[in-house]
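Renewal narrative, Specific Aim 1. Our central claim is that a sequence can be written position by position from structural information alone. The example that follows is taken directly from our test logs and has not been curated for this report. It begins with the structure tokens describing the chain, in the order in which they were read.
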């Protein structure tokens, strides 16, 4: 494929061989592009080299952090507790924890043509990406063109102000293509996330959608539970106490139908066993 060169370089291309020697010196590589400096006589011209991949030319998570001082924080405690419970109970026998990324309240950048556009899922999970093992490597955001892997599932917690967008009831018209799409459109048509779950804490209703060809189709749930064969885990509505609060919560369960425990619950069971053995769990 022929690269369209600037007019000055086209003229050089059509001109006879230069009578003075030409030297080519590489320019230092920048974040945006790679160029070669061509010296002819006393003048210098910049010649673009072959196009670089998006990972090298588009912004990274360091350019696109999630923290925005002008953006309001989480709307309520439920939006803090529920994603935390999903994170704490996710333990798939098919997904090594060091190759699984879970995002909560973090920007998800999705469009190489509009690199500043993002969505902020309440909870999402990605398979096959390396989890940070050092604090300095913790992600500032999830940038799809940098990671190269799309989410496997996204969860949205419905609220009156976001319900229409979350359920795809305000898809953009053709004349609005220069404005950011809603979450449904991003998850379904751009990222093509295989599973999308929404939960309404006011009606206690969980709904799940699976990607079939190019569109989401609603999955008929039994007892408000969704089994995901690929990861050998299920997601359902559990009634119980979490963070001292009684209610109905989304929670992961295993192939035996058992709700997966949180670290606190496991510690409490261990402490009870030690007490039964006559040991004080508070003394190491």
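The sequence written for that structure reads:
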């Amino acid at each position: 494929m022929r690269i369209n060169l600037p007019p000055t370089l086209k003229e050089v291309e059509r001109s006879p061989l230069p009578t003075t020697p030409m030297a080519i010196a590489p320019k230092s590589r920048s974040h945006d592009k790679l160029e070669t400096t061509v010296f002819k006589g006393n003048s210098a011209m910049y010649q673009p080299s072959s196009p670089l991949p998006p990972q090298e030319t588009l912004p990274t998570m360091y350019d696109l952090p999630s923290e925005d001082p002008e953006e309001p924080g989480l709307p309520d405690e439920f939006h803090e507790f529920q994603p935390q419970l999903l994170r704490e109970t996710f333990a798939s026998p098919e997904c090594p924890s060091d190759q699984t990324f879970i995002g909560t309240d973090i920007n998800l950048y999705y469009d190489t043509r509009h690199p500043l556009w993002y969505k902020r899922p309440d909870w999402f999970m990605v398979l096959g990406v390396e989890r940070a093992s050092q604090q300095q490597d913790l992600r500032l955001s999830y940038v799809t063109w940098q990671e190269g892997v799309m989410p496997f599932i996204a969860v949205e917690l419905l609220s009156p102000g976001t319900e229409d967008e979350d359920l795809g009831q305000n898809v953009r018209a053709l004349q609005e293509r220069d404005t950011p799409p809603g979450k449904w459109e991003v998850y379904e048509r751009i990222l093509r996330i295989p599973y999308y779950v929404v939960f309404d804490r006011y009606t206690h209703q969980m709904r799940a959608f699976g990607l079939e060809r190019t569109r989401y189709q609603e999955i008929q749930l039994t007892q408000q539970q969704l089994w995901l064969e690929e990861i050998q885990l299920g997601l359902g509505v559990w009634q119980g106490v979490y963070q001292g609060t009684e209610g109905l919560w989304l929670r992961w369960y295993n192939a035996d139908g058992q709700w997966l425990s949180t670290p606190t619950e496991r510690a409490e069971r261990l402490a009870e066993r030690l007490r039964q053995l006559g040991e004080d769990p508070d003394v190491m």
